[in-house]
Amino acid sequence: MNNNELTINTSIEDIYGDNPLITQLPPILDTKSVIKHLRGKLKFIPEQRFLPQPERIHLIAQLPHDFFQPLTKHLSLEQKISIMIRQGYVSRNINNGDRHRHLHAAFQQLELSNESSYRYAPPESTATSMSIIGCSGSGKTTTMNKILRYYPQVIEHKQLGLKQIVYLKIDCPHDSSLKNLCSNFFRAVDLALGDTNFEHRFTRSRLNVNAMLQQMKIIANNYSIGLLIIDEIQHLNTKKSGGAEIILNFFVTLVNVASIPIVMIGTPKANEILQEDLRSARRSAGLGSLIWEPMRNEAPTPDPSTRDQMIISEWHAFTNKLWQYQWVQQPAELTDELRATWYHYTQGIPDLVVKLFCLVQIHAITIGLEKITSELFKKVYEEQLQPVHDILDALRSGNPARIARYSDLTIPQVQIEEYVQQHRFKAALKTEKQHKDLGPHYSTLIGMLTALGHPAATIEPHVISALKKYPNENLQVLLQHILEVLDSPVAEDKFKQHQTTTPARKPRTSRKVMKVEEWKSTETNDLRNFFSQAQEQDVDVYELLKSSHYLFDPTRPILH
Asked: Where is each AAA+ ATPase domain found (predicted)?
């Protein structure tokens, strides 16, 4: 997205003054621009429903990665991140010397090992921290990554001779090892800058954990890290060597002393860690502790401020948008029954909502059903989502004890790629067999009719019908039969019915059905004219089209 196209609410200098660490950041976004930035870029074209099965399966497989429906909590998080980054830089202004005072304080602590022994106290911190707590699959990490992609990770201030790391995101190690956490930090810095070797320098040395933490603070100040995101914070929940307490105290120091904002992301288990001592609990609530629960199955409610409008729930907004991406050939209406079934088998967990929708479509295409049904939701859930049955059963029960027992479990990776690969292969074999059974004219007729202006979504059934009805006829006769059917009133009615399930398009212009002997009177670039010429010259129409350069020759070089 081009940052120059985004709406700027006001002059950044009016809010934060002359601070290069802030003024070089992208503009502050308004709500409309945030939605535009976060929304998935995947486009849906109704005619794609009549592509071959393998190609449609590939399109469906994009949904888990490319579909994103911005919700209220996503907009709230973007605003908080925007504030945290800029506010944290206020007390690290290069122009007034605050940044240098932070650096001196970090080096002093490395030498003195005692914050109270500072000869020169650092400026008062303007940083805050925040925690995001939610079950696995609720979209915490995905949303954070989308928000961060708006910002350049590194900004080089050539005139000032420094590099600014706008954000740094690291994961807590599964073994809760502080040394591994430090190593993850150094590695992330090396990857962001591209020309440093901190990981090798500090992890291969004999530095103890405290010394490594101090080096982290120096690096964070030296490269003006704007936001530190710690993901999978629940992994710190071990008593081994007091690991959680040490690292939480260090995070508090980064916020309070180094003025570096921190976001901690984790499952509900992380709440116990963050509340173990009052300082960390207070700090993690700097901009609030966001609790991300699964979407609730709530129906739209009347808007009290208007007479005829409804307030739509997040569940309805999410599923309404996702439902538009139906690549089955018989798109269904999203009824209350289908939506209720969908919720029952996903409990509103966004990751599962999208993946079940994908798996159901792939299954419907592969077995030839070409339609989403409640029965298919159940079948795919039972066969493909077995790893999450215990978690979803607990959520359905409404029993707090059962929910607490499973709330910290990671949603197992639904192997959608493997499922896609298996069904793509089956679909490819099925499509290949179908086309082989239909004879050599299938692809040629599809291409010709599309070139004549007929929508791809309407022609395939007629082509298949004609090939089955007249298996021994030549292309010319087959094309005449299909055109007569397509221009008949019955076909026109079916076309209008199809339009009701797809976005509006320009109205078709009516055609007068020509007899074969009249084809030679059409324009010279009309396919029917080529058929007439081929018949008169007693040559194959394919060769005539090729010699006239109307067909792409893959052996010829493409000129630029």
From this structure: 126-296
